[in-house]
Amino acid sequence: MTETTERPGAIRGPGFWRTDLSLFKNIKFTEHLTGQFRWETFIAFNHTNPICCGSTNMISSLYNTISSTRDPRIMQLGMKLNF
Q1: In this structure, are residues 49 and 13 in contact, taking their beta carbons and an 8 Å threshold?
Q2: What's the confidence (pLDDT) of residue 20?
Q3: What pLDDT, on a 0 to 100 scale, did the predictor assign at position 54?
Q4: How far is CA 72 from CA 11, 23, 29, 65, in A?
Q5: pLDDT tens, the chain, 83 aa long
Q6: What does the domain layout of the chain look like in residue ranges?
Q7: Both ends of the chain: CA-CA distance in Å?
Q8: How many CB atoms lie within 10 A of CB 43?
């Protein structure tokens, strides 16, 4: 890696943001049997988050290029029983 004289924060990559959401409903079946229904979503708004900087070598032709993107939206459903 080549030493630079740039101040910290002078070189920036693309922005990154992610929103995770979760909804759940508690259900009582009997006095000793309860349950919980869950719906969870990760990266809820499916915003593209690039993976930046294929190379940290400032001389490389890949320096500061977007090489790929992070995971897409993921959803999961779940049911939990407590007895």
Answers
A1: no
A2: 94
A3: 60
A4: 27, 20, 36, 20
A5: 556 676 776 666 677 788 999 999 999 999 999 999 999 999 899 888 887 766 666 677 777 777 778 888 999 999 999 99
A6: 21-82
A7: 58
A8: 19
Query: In this structure, what DSSP letter does residue 6 have?
Result: P
Q: Token pair for residue 26?
A: 């508690």
Q: Torsions phi, psi of 49, nearest 5?
A: -115, 105
Residue 63, both tokens: 């320096």
Distance, in Å, from the CA atom of 9 to the CA atom of 68, rounded to the nearest integer, reads 23
What SS3 state is found at 57?
coil
List CB contacts of 7: < 8 A, sequence separation 6 or more. none
Q: Give the burial class of 54: count Cβ atoms within 10 A of its Cβ; 0-12 exposed, 13-18 middle, 19 or more buried.
A: middle
For residue 28, which amino acid is it?
Answer: K
